[in-house]
Structure formats: structure tokens, C-alpha cells
TrEMBL record:
Its cofactor is FAD. Gene3D superfamilies: NAD(P)-binding Rossmann-like Domain. It comes from Kribbibacterium absianum. Its EC number is 5.4.99.9. This is UDP-galactopyranose mutase. It holds the Pfam family NAD_binding_8. Belongs to the UDP-galactopyranose/dTDP-fucopyranose mutase family. Keywords: FAD, Flavoprotein, Isomerase.
Amino acid sequence: MSIATGLPEDFKADDYDMLVVGAGYAGSVVARRFAESCGAKVCVLEMRDHIAGNAYDCYDEAGVLIHQYGPHIYHTFNSRVNSFLSRFTEFTDYEHRVLADVHGTLMPVPFNHASLKLAFGEERGEELYQKLVATFGENKKVPIMQLREKNDPDLQEVADYVYENIFLYYTMKQWGQTPDEIDPSITGRVPVFVGDDDRYFPQAPYQGMPAEGYTSMFERMLDHDLIDVFVEVDARQILSVEGNHVVVQGKPYGGEVVYTGPLDELFQCDAGALPYRSLDMRFETLAMDRFQPVGTVNYTTSEDFTRITEFKNMTGQELEGVTTIMREYPLAYDREAGMDAYYPIIEPENQELYQQYRDRVGMIANFHPAGRLAEYRYYDMDAVTASALDLSDEIIAAHA
């Protein structure tokens, strides 16, 4: 692998069998698999000055390993995803735990046995827990909509508490919506965990953090003799879609194109801009060993920010007398202000607009939209990796 800043004057796209736009999960996974499976030469074009996409991590001035674009917690049920990523890193045994600050009391989320007793007191909390066990069984995740469907006053009491104290204000901050605007389908997914397991992903068999960080994992993934990476390159300066062709450097390109950027921006948003939510992430370095008991504390009933992340609690980094925390302030996405687009707003009219853009590339056999931005959907890291593995299977099969 070579990584260069900017494109050289003698750059020729035709020297490559595949152009990949974006060096995050989707682009990097496909690049690696195509290069090693087909012996094909791959060019990766990345707009930022680094690889790894939003999973990028680095050391701050205090020497703390931070996640520049917010906490990334590896977990998956998918053995293929785990096997593939494990080629490029060892994973620690970290298991994510989250606490919610509810009127000053820290309680586990998803809401569980311990949370019930903290919220309702030992005796009443235990009564409600036993009702949950009798109704649903132990070690089950139960969406609060299911609690309401039982038409039981005790279960309704639990559902109402979780909705009002764990979900409502947090979601209003996250999405900038009032309660009547929040889609009921989102409410219905909020779970109560009937059990004592306080892990955020209690049933995922593969969990951890890359032992040397995410960026190191991506460096190894892209470290192949047939892969060239160019950072600080806006691919739209050389690549466009014209009719049923991908045009690169002024002429139709015959190789494969994997595009992971915003699909609307490829067309200068000429049908309208797809909306997102963004985040203002504020880092603070503190002269102490530890700020909070877990990696993430959600502020569900107070504060303008949604959560505080303390990175040392996740990475296991040993560094005495200093720690770095990050507060997340959700805000409306402003493309012109250079904000990062984090969360697509999945509403019918936005999906219809996205589909208009998708239809314009749907007949181009060598153009493959991939990943969170190009597919306008929310992806966990393992899900986007799985999708990229599937896409690479299709491309490899076509070149067999």
C-alpha cells in the first residue's frame, strides 16, 4: 500500500481496475478483497486527510487515544465479519456498558433488573421485575411497545417510566423533534432487558476494541501491493455520472467504481439535498485518572448534550493522571458550514428523494453505491462490513 496526499500530475485512472471513493469500512473492505482475490489494481480516493472514515482514532495532545468522530464500539453476531476484521487486528475483551443519568442517579441502560430497583425502590422494583419475568421470561429484550400491548398496569408503569426518563428527552435532543413528531416506530424499539446482564450488547458473541486502535486496523487492511490510497482528494473533481456511464478524467471508465460518498452530492444536489443530523463533539482533557465509571454516560433528563464518552474506559489505555472526555451536542446538519453528516433522517419524503438519485445510477453496471452515505441509511460497523463483503462477493464473481 502507498498513501499519498493529493493526486500526482501523471495520475491515470485507467491504470486501475477499480476506483474506490472513500476509505471507511465499505470502501476499504471491498478494496482489500478485490485486490487480493482478483489480483486487480485498486485506487482509493479519500476526501479527508486520513483513512478509516468515522472510525478514525488518534492520540490527542495529552497522549489519550480518542475516537475523533465519536465512540465506535465493536460488536457483532456475524462470524464472517469477525473473521475478516480479525485478520487485521486483535480485539480486546472490552464489553460496553452504558449508564443513564436520570435526575442525578446513574442506572444501567438498556433498562434492566438493577435499573428497576434504582428507579422504583428495592421492593417495588423487584415486584415489577418478577412481573416481567413471569410475562416474558428471563434474559429477553422487550420493546416498550410490547409492554403496552399487554394492557397490564404494572407493565404500563415500567413502559411509561422508560419512555419518559430514558427515551423522550434524549431523543428530542438527538433528532431535534418534539414528542408528537417522534415516529412511533422509534419508540417501539426502546428495550427493557429482563435480566441482570448490564452489557449494552448482552447477547453479541463478538465484542471488543481493536487492540492497537481502529486506524491501525485500517492501515493493515489497505496494506496490499495492489492498493494505492490518495487522501485529501475530492473524487468529484475527476469523476461524474453522465447518462449510463461513469466518466473519469473526461472519458467513460471501464473499471469498477465503488462510491461511498453522499449520492446527492455526486449530482450537485440538483434534485434537492438529503437531510441529516450532525454532531458538535467537544473534547476536554482532565487532570485525573478517571472521570466516570463507564465508557459512556447518557444524559436522558438533563443537559443540552446527549452523552459523555471517556475513551480510556473503552480502550483500556493505561495513562496516569490524565483522561479525555467528549460531550456530544446534536444539531441540524449544515452542508455549507462543512459539518459532517452523521445520521440520515429516515422519513418517507427523504427516502423518495434518495431513490431518485439511486435510480440515476441503477442501470450502470460498474457503479456500486456502498455504505452509510451512499445508501442513505444508518449502519453499525459490523453491518456495513457485512454489506461490503457481500458486494465484494458479487464483484469478484463477475470477474471470475
